[in-house]
Every structure is written in C-alpha cells, then in structure tokens.
C-alpha cells in the first residue's frame, strides 16, 4: 500500500465525477460518474504554496469587500441545475504533499461570530487506488502537523469544461481513521493566530499596520486596503497573552474589519458593509426558501456606544455614537433613557478616534440584534460570510449580510443554508 507524496502525473489524477454533485432545486444529487479526466485547475501546476499572489485590492468593491468572482457563464449556470465539483490539495510549507485528495463527502461551515469563523469536514476513503490515506506519519497529507488544505470548487459548464474557483486554505485540525474512512476536520487560517498565545507581553511601537503585522505575520500575510488611514500607536500599550484578542482590539480601535481571503491573506478593510449585493435571494424562486427566525429579545440590546481612550496628556477622552434609527433608537419606545455599551482602548488618543470606534462598535453590535432570516438555496460556491445579499420575501425586502453559511461540497449534502441579518 503506497503512502501519498508529491505530485502525480495528470494522466493519473483522480476524476472529479465521484467527488462532485449534480445540483438541482437546491439539492445536490449523485450523478453518473464522469469518466473524463477533469480540466487543469488554475494554478495547480506551478503554485508554490499558500502565499502565491497578492489580492487585487484596487479591484475590490466598496468597503474593501472580499468577493469570489465567477465568469458570466458560470454565474448563469448557477441559476439552474448544474454539477458542482471539489478538488483538495495538501501542502506542508512550500511542499505539495498530495495534489488530489480523494473526497467522498465534504462540507464547509462559517460563522462570523466565532474567533475562527471557518471550518470544513471531509470524509476520505482509507484506501484509494493502492494509496493509504490514514495519517500514520507526521508528513502524511492528512496529518495535523501544519498541513494545509487548498480547496477548489468547480462549476461544470458543459461540453467537458469546468470553471474552477478557489474556496480557501484550511489548517488540518484533526484526522481520524475509523474503519474504511478517514474523517478530517480543518479550520480557517486564523487558527494559527488564535493558538499562538503571546509568550511574553507584547509592547507595540510604530503604527497600527506595523503592530498588526507584528501580531500576525508570518502566520498570515497582512494586506491593507489603501482606503484605511494608518496612524501611530501610543506609548504604553501592552498586550499580555491573547494574540488574536489583541488583533481584534486593534481592529475595533482603528476602526477596521479583517477576514482571511480565499488566497490565504488577512485582508484589512474599512469596517463598513457593502450596499451592493453580490446575489439576489427570492423566496420561492429556483428552490430558494426564506424563513424568519421569529425571535425577539432585549438581551444585549442598547442604543448608545461610549468609546473611551487616553489623550497624550494622560486625560481620559471619549466619543459617543447613538442609534438613531430602527426600533431601538434612542428616545424611542424601546427605552426613554439611554442604554449604553462601553468600550475602551489605549489605542484611542483623540476624540475623533473614539467617535469613529464607537460608530464601528455600534454597527457591529446592531448587527447581532437585527432581524434574522434563514435561507435555504441552491449551493453557490462563491458566496461568503460577510457578503451583502438582496432578499425578497413576504415579510421582508431589502439588503442583508450573510452571518453564517453551510455549504455542501458533494452529493447528499442538501441545499446551502444561510443565516442573514437585515442591514435596514
């Protein structure tokens, strides 16, 4: 029994037919095996590892939106029945361990409220064409010793043509061989930052950008949207153990947002949601079902954010942001008195910085109490958490942000499930 290692010739590469799904009315169904050799996936032959090219920052939408782009032809295919394929590579540093991990079933779950939002689950045959996929050695493609999985999804355009898009990079968290199958759990690249607690107190110097890079790199390469203004970090700032917590505090104080791109970079952008939808979801159209969560609570609700910092002379300063719209607006029926949320950071040194941070925190906290909808729809390989979508349903018509998603990669996974919250 061989152990996978290095590249296999293209003539020997696994066909995607048994690792794909025919998608119709939101339900992937098993199709007849496609015995043709699949087309060359972009970047497979010459990709040296996770960090290959910088994202096209200039080409991104308003607010630095991360968008996985599809061709017009692929986008049109997604409106009907189509075949979705999956391809997985395993890398250890700059070494390609396996070009084509055989996948029996796979899915992805993303939740923006988690410190590490992304998680994928794979089921791999224990033995496949004379190769053992049981992670018995530290350098095995499915071992949890730093191995990273590159996931690509393909949309069958017909005529033997498949358009491949990169879904993302994931760190192998755990692999377990049981019977005839190996189950693999992999997590988003932010896990590298989350698990790397600070060994000694971190005292930043320089600017916000250099501090962020000092906390994150070389685990992740930081790419900053030019729309963000950098500024100096005040003296006396100290971070103790929580490296990822320090990153989040810095982003709130900037204010900015950050997410790992499909190419494995940490992209930092203005903390404002896009008002341009990447997709329209209409209840009852093409198998799409939109339902209201039907939950309302006062827990965690507020209508004022107070952000506090320290001026250069040591005096305390603050900025305030008010919720002036919606059912919980200040001065409304929710409560005639202000209901505040307090936020403090030593990175805030002016009233303007405090006010900007307060507005960002207000927008983020409002999102957690906005109207929530569950959407079940045909799997869309390019949709990401944080994307803005247009929702049309009996109870609501307007813009929403994707907060969670569950995306089946293979047959039998059912429809794609989204949790979205209204922007209005």
TrEMBL record:
Kindly give the InterPro entries that the UniProt entry links to this protein: DUF5047
Where in this chain does the record put each DUF5047 domain? Answer: 134-230
Superkingdom: Bacteria
Give the residue ranges for region: Disordered: 1-59
Q: What is this protein called?
A: DUF5047 domain-containing protein
Organism of origin: Micromonospora endolithica
Task: Provide the organism lineage as a comma list.
Answer: Bacteria, Bacillati, Actinomycetota, Actinomycetes, Micromonosporales
